[in-house]
UniProtKB/TrEMBL annotation:
Any one GO molecular function term: mannosyltransferase activity
Alphabetic keyword roster: Membrane, Transmembrane, Transmembrane helix
Highest taxon listed in the record's lineage: Eukaryota
This protein's record includes keyword Transmembrane: yes
Entry GO terms, CC: endoplasmic reticulum
Coiled coil: none
UniProt cross-references to PANTHER family, sorted A to Z: PROTEIN O-MANNOSYL-TRANSFERASE TMTC3 (PTHR44395:SF1), PTHR44395
Boundaries of every Glycosyltransferase RgtA/B/C/D-like domain copy: 79-190
Transmembrane segments: 103-122, 128-146
UniProt-listed GO biological process terms: protein O-linked glycosylation via mannose
Protein name (Swiss-Prot/TrEMBL): Glycosyltransferase RgtA/B/C/D-like domain-containing protein
UniProt keyword Secreted present: no
Cited Pfam families: PMT_2
Amino acid sequence: MGGYSGTHDILLLVEQLHSNLKSMESSSMGFPSSTAEIFAVCFDKRWSCLLEQSHKSYRPLCVLTFRWNYLLHGLEPAGYHLVNVLLHTIVSLMYFRMCAMLLSETASFAAALLFAVHPIHTEAVTGVVGRAETLSSVFFLAAFIFYTKATRRKKSTGWRFLCLSMLFVATAMLCKEQGITITGVCAIYEIFVAQKKGKKGEHEESEFQCRMGEVTNGFECHESVFLE
């Protein structure tokens, strides 16, 4: 995480947000002064009120975190950067948890470490608007982890975990639209992992029953010979 620590001074400068935020303070599109106005962002269909012509993305939860940042420390870049780094840390830990379900602990740790320090994530961590990526990733991974829990049992569905997974899918979408893609990941997991585990479990169970039947029959034959 140390690789991201030296960029807080240029965090807003690079994206030219500071001047835009200053100009917004005196405009009708400025930041809210009450809790009710904060949650009014959920009814704003624009991704960024900093853009004159937005591409109409709907990311209210991400915008809401920006407004919370502003209420806490105004335009101080360090606060925005700190939240982004914390989110990236959480994502890296969740990535390790996800890998641990499929790989060994050593391989999972190596994969998570590479994920955490890989330079491809620099823009998502150091850039203010990159928070949409990391925030969505938190709920993206949470949705997948809970889906795997829902399919863990062979003969029944964990409906509580499945409902939580669906909730996290919706939340990921409210952070960034790409959150919907987790449904495809879950479908692939269901077809190529969960279903194969189910068939393997059924085969092992039937094989176990057959062996138990052989043992039981042998014991009965042995007992009948002994009684005779």
